[in-house]
Inverse folding.
């Protein structure tokens, strides 16, 4: 499938809107200091130890630091155990799926910190030698929103383009191959997709520039949201069931990714009006899908997940394609696989149903 003119036009338009969204927190800071007359950049804090959260958040600092270091891994493992005890994988965790899930969980945790650390400590001082802690004067909430927007909007685009550009799809395919949803899906990615994840380096750059403390809070909050959105535990259902919680649900499902909206993205079909692998790209914020009209909200869960023509390819092919190819006949990860673009998980807006093409947000 080639990139048609209408899709290219939509991507271009949305990219221009994104530039405004990236700049919005920065302009808010400029307006604030123009209004107050303060000029904190004239005496920036160069000592990272002096940078901290507002007083009312100080008690959370140890929690966030521990979550960042080992707590999120502990939560993920605990959540995985809970999912298995509840039988939510429905005996679909075959040896092949088990291998790919474990490898995708462990290898990035071991290698990526080294890669980003090298980028932050070795390359950035060479590229930006006098820029370390340049923006340490930025107040906590200002830095928090700058990073939250820069981090998550960048990931939204990285994710969206891997669905909309045929060449990129196979690098993201592993994330959609499993016929189940669960904690493991949060990290189930092709290694090349993960290594070239520009959001990782963007965040590392912002930390180098003096926004590390705010990045800590954003990273932990985002990790908790994305982990819970991939989980097979439907924590959002009570918000839809009880009428008194409906106003909260309306805001929540448009602001962040919930299990219902993100499970729809992992469905193996879009024909039932619930599944929507052609959209719902948001990671921490579903708000991007609302703004760019790439999402639907149904408050329902798909009945099946994955890819219809999944060949249960070898773990090494899913994790390291195209370095290693699959030996499964007919697989798009094999040496003689289908042409790029034959995949129905790629977005072709000319074939969408009218109600999905306009990405109408609905509630059931």
């Amino acid at each position: 499938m080639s990139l048609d003119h209408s899709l290219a036009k939509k991507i271009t338009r949305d990219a221009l809107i994104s530039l405004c969204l990236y700049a919005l927190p920065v302009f808010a800071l400029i307006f604030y200091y123009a209004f107050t007359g303060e000029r904190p950049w004239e005496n920036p804090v160069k000592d990272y130890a002096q940078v901290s959260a507002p007083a009312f958040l100080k008690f959370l600092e140890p929690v966030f630091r521990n979550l960042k270091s080992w707590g999120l891994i502990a939560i993920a493992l605990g959540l995985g155990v809970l999912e298995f005890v509840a039988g939510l994988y429905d005996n679909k965790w075959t040896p092949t799926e088990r291998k790919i899930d474990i490898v995708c969980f462990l290898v990035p945790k071991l290698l990526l910190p080294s890669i980003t650390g090298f980028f932050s400590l070795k390359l950035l001082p060479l590229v930006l030698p006098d820029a370390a802690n340049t923006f340490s004067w930025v107040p906590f909430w200002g830095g928090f929103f700058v990073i939250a927007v820069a981090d998550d909007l960048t990931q939204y685009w990285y994710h969206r383009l891997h669905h909309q550009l045929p060449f990129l799809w196979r690098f993201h395919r592993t994330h959609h191959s499993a016929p189940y949803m669960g904690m493991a899906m949060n990290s189930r990615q092709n290694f090349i997709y993960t290594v070239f994840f520009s959001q990782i380096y963007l965040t590392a750059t912002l930390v180098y520039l003096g926004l590390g403390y705010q990045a800590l809070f954003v990273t932990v909050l985002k990790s908790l949201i994305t982990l819970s959105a991939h989980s097979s535990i439907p924590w959002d259902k009570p918000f839809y069931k009880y009428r008194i919680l409906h106003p909260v649900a309306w805001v929540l499902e448009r602001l962040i990714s919930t299990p219902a909206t993100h499970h729809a993205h992992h469905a193996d079909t879009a024909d039932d009006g619930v599944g929507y692998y052609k959209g719902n790209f948001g990671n921490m914020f579903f708000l991007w899908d609302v703004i760019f009209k790439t999402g639907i909200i149904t408050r329902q869960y798909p009945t099946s997940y994955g890819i219809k023509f999944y060949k249960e390819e070898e773990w090494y092919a899913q994790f390291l394609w195209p370095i290693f190819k699959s030996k499964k006949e007919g697989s798009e990860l094999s040496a003689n696989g289908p042409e790029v673009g034959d995949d129905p998980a790629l977005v072709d807006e000319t074939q969408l149903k009218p109600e999905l093409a306009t990405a109408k947000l609905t509630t059931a």
In short: The two ends are 33 Å apart (CA to CA). Residues 5-41+70-357 form one domain.
